[in-house]
Amino acid sequence: MRLLTKRIFQVAKGIMTKVDNKKQIAREKSIERIRNSAIHLFSKNGFSATTMEMIAKHAKVSKGLAYNYFKSKNQIFESILNDYLSKQEALNAGISTNQAAVDYLRELFQKTLEFLVQERKTLILLTICKFQPNSLILSKKMTENIEKRFAPYHEAMKDRFKKLGIADPELEMLYVKTFFHGLIMSQCTDNDVYPKHQIVEIFLSRYTGK
After folding, report:
1. Rg of the chain taking only CA atoms, in angstroms
2. Residues 109 and 205 both lie in one domain
3. pLDDT tens for residues 73-128?
4. Which of 60, 80, 107, 198 is most buried by its number of CB atoms within 10 A?
5. Residues 81 and 167 in one domain
6. How many domains does the chain have?
7. DSSP characters for 57-97?
8. What range does the domain containing 46 cover?
């Protein structure tokens, strides 16, 4: 009797687990559709002109379900930004620190280029939001979040510039930041037309003397 009860419990538990897994998969798919729709609509109409109702309709979910996952369109935007930054942090963390400064910079630039291609839609959205007059508060929060999360990597970069004999690592970081912004803008506008990889090598020649 005990064995039978135990078996019934195990079967019931297995069924409940499968049901829970299906619900979780459905939940993740709905959230992804909402986020992708928000990226599309924010980029097309602007943040201020886009409503939760528009996002829900585009994602083909009810407005109630959209609000169940996100309290507001601001929260959707923050979720998109957080996901983007988490991926970029993982990229930076995956670059070996046990290599020469120039090799580190080359790998960082090349992987960043690949990342920009993969995340082009999100990149365009974030770039547009920074320049929208009605999204100044959002843009300020976005900029502060980015600077805070990437502060450790900026410090690591400055250490490498010191090893390269750069007299003013802080100023050099501003130079690199400007270069990065150029890569980002080229990815938003020119996509694959711009010879980005060749430009990276030209930039790195600044440190190799070639």
Report:
1. 23
2. yes
3. 888 988 888 888 888 888 888 888 788 878 888 888 888 888 888 888 888 887 77
4. 80
5. yes
6. 2
7. HHHTS-HHHHHHH-SSHHHHHHHHHHHHHHHHHHHHHTS-S
8. 1-71
